[in-house]
Prior knowledge:
alpha/beta; 7-stranded mixed sheet; 11% strand; binds tryptophan
Amino acid sequence: MASANRIDPWSSEQSTDYGRLVEQFGLSDVDPSTLPNPGMLHRRGIVFAHRDLDVVVGCMERSDPFGVLTGLMPSGRMHLGHSMVIEQVRWFQEQGADITVAVADLEALATRGTDLVKGRETAIREYVHNYAALGLDPEKTSVYFQSSRPEVQRLAFTLGKRTNLSEFEAIYGFNGETNLAHVQAPLVQVGDIIHPQLDEFGGLRPIVVPVGVDQDPHLRLTRDIAQKTNWFNVKTRKSGGLTVALSVQDSNSHNLGVLEGGKIDIGVREKVISRIEDSVRDLGFSDVISNPKHGTIEIPGAVNSDIHDIRVKALSFERELGGFGLIPPCSTYHRFAVGMTGDKMSSSKPETTIFMDDNIEDMSKKVKRALSGGQPTVEEHRRIGGDVSKDVAYQYLQYFFEENDKALEEIKDDYESGRMLAGEIKQVCIEKASEWLEDLREKRGQWEGRLDEFLASDAII
Ligand code: TRP
């Protein structure tokens, strides 16, 4: 299934050629200086790429509503790797987001054979409990299960009409041998990502999905499908400015003034075009050229950063007419932290990571055994210095345990200059990790028995 130009979201291999991924899939770089109160993962380049994050930042700046959608596989134990997404979710929450958490119990059932009752138990005990301890606010967070949210499943079916096996082959490398569970799971995930925009779940607003790059195929699929449902496309205009163009489809031709046989009902068409024209004028554009017959509204004075506002106007009108009115999801991508042995982090190999409930002794053992960037002898180390690009202790301080940039910089200087030895940086990591784990344990204690507060009403049994 793996191929040079594909990402396989189910693979245990991980591509770490981030530059190639950015280029190949058209991701944008994250520039922390454009973010309000950038978090530690942004400042350190760990959250390195995005799609349409500027749309969400615009909402933050105007205090407009926006949401975060994240999902979890209710299998295995929660470890440091999983906490990176939650760290970002917490940051979005602090900037004003509402939060929806999908428990991918149907996906786990279909792809890993996890039964629904067990999945539910694991999701709450292992994941929701730690999300609470990591700072998600139950007032703003709503956890649901794929298996008990019919709207999500319904979207998986309806939106499934907008794609086909060829697209799945191109995105995921599927072929005739592919298990159908792997066809269903991404469609349900499309439903997960889209459904917070439905009126019953918060309505039209941008939704951002923070993920590791391995999940990007699902985002590409969802964005593609969302765009295919749109009744109005906002495009850049060759001679400058933007154009809103009707996208006539079987399901909307009647509303957009196309009669059977393709003739145009000019009365209907003019009404539609003038509504869009009015809302574009409402946004402050006075130079607007409409062509009802062609189904276009040209706005020469508009620039790319106006696309979102114009699109939202068109989408709310589309909703009035009976369409979905969907904004393509925004996303951010984080680098993966190395596993402690130098391989990939994995729940099934406890020596590769630190679990959220590891005791101090187990954690210390793993840090002591972890891959080091130190030199073979003290003499050499003092002369050449440590290599932070290989050193797990340093990287875990950077990714997880040392929030203070200045303190981290000092550790780096000391280590690279050889003043700090490999054993010493491990000791620093152990101390910071102990504090981190202790704090988390204490907070888990505070949330004991209160996890229902995080569950959506359809998640309570
Ligand atoms: N497929 C994701 C995983 O393997 C889980 C998931 C389901 C998800 N729905 C989602 C992740 C929506 C992000 C957004 O972990």
